[in-house]
Amino acid sequence: MPEVDRAAASRAAVAARRARAAVKEAVRAGERTAIDVAEAAWAAPEGPEAGMRVAELLGTLRGLGPKRVDDALEMLRISPVKRLGGLGHLQRDRLRSWLRAREGVAGRGRLVVLAGPTAVGKGTVAGYIREHHPDVLLSVSATTRAPRPGERDGVHYYFVDDAGFDALIDRGDLLEWATVHNASRYGTPRPPVEAALAAGRSVLLEIDLQGARQVRASMPEALLVFLQPPSWEELVRRLVGRGTESAEEQARRLETARVELAAQDEFDELVVNDDVRRAAQEVVDLLTVPSGAARPSGRAGSAR
Ligand SMILES: Nc1ncnc2c1ncn2[C@@H]1O[C@H](COP(=O)(O)OP(=O)(O)OP(=O)(O)O)[C@@H](O)[C@H]1O
Ligand SMILES: Nc1nc2c(ncn2[C@@H]2O[C@H](COP(=O)(O)O)[C@@H](O)[C@H]2O)c(=O)[nH]1
């Protein structure tokens, strides 16, 4: 290549790199959505968006570290070196649906999983959301544990026996399920969740870490939120103060709690439950995609 052509090619490459960096910055700043960038790449093969690697685009999304970008690419069957402009039609369709589900459509909802250690206040925060935000579907789990005083079948849980729970599993009616605290089984009924999501309604699952991991594997677009206690001492105080478990059961739950607290980096978002109303509002913000913006921001903590 003649010297003058080489210089021009090098200038063009630098300009293209800068343009791609500006696109990434715009997504990070919430000025553009990732879907918008992907659609622009497919509409204009010469534009800067088309030259972006899919991995770069996913890496701009909040909560998606390198490991989760790799997982998403594997699930979408897209090579890590592929550029947006080089995707085939099926890959485009898969990426489009995945981004839509993850970013949400402006003004519509998404699937959020709320997990955290025992007695941190998941049920209290979820109950506050049920009361103040009836637009959000709070999934009612099935469980084999016995009702606590005041708990109502179909409201707090569907209380079933072992045979009933087995039947739910056999019919494929559970989105996820787990034996929690080495004691009872709990699971999320699939049909109401799928129906609500299909209707564009936000869905909140209040489940344990094992269930959260299963949802991540089967629905990678779900947003995983970890509810943190202000301190370990406060967590113990809440568990003991609730007074619904025997000393033996409390000890078993606190053992699980240590494991769950150690896993919080797996989550997309962290919310501290020092105040129920504020923590609930943070979760509601995460459940809602404001019009014109990619994701809500300004929360107290972020996992990554
Ligand atoms: N922000 C808060 N400040 C003080 N107390 C709280 C707060 N949130 C919840 N609590 C109290 O902590 C106790 C445990 O709350 P809750 O039962 O909602 O926890 P949980 O995370 O759902 O527990 P589990 O996983 O064991 O079902 C309750 O007595 C509740 O009233
Ligand atoms: N994997 C799932 N875990 C669930 C579900 N519903 C509730 N849970 C979790 O169980 C524990 C204990 O609850 P408790 O009411 O007995 O105190 C708690 O961590 C819940 O989040 C579910 O459907 N799947």
Automatic annotation (TrEMBL):
What UniProt keywords apply to this chain's record, in alphabetical order? ATP-binding, Cytoplasm, Kinase, Nucleotide-binding, Transferase
Give residue ranges for domain Guanylate kinase-like: 109-288
Which subcellular locations apply to this protein? Cytoplasm
Give the EC number(s) listed in the UniProt record.
2.7.4.8
Instruction: Give the chief site where it resides.
Output: cytoplasm
- Residues annotated for ATP binding in this entry: G116, P117, T118, A119, V120, G121, K122, G123
* Reactions this protein catalyses: GMP + ATP = GDP + ADP
Under the GO molecular function aspect, what terms does this record hold?
A: GMP kinase activity
Q: Which NCBIfam families match?
A: guanyl_kin
This chain belongs to which protein, by name?
A: Guanylate kinase
From which organism does this entry originate? Microcella humidisoli
Q: What is the lineage of its organism?
A: Bacteria, Bacillati, Actinomycetota, Actinomycetes, Micrococcales
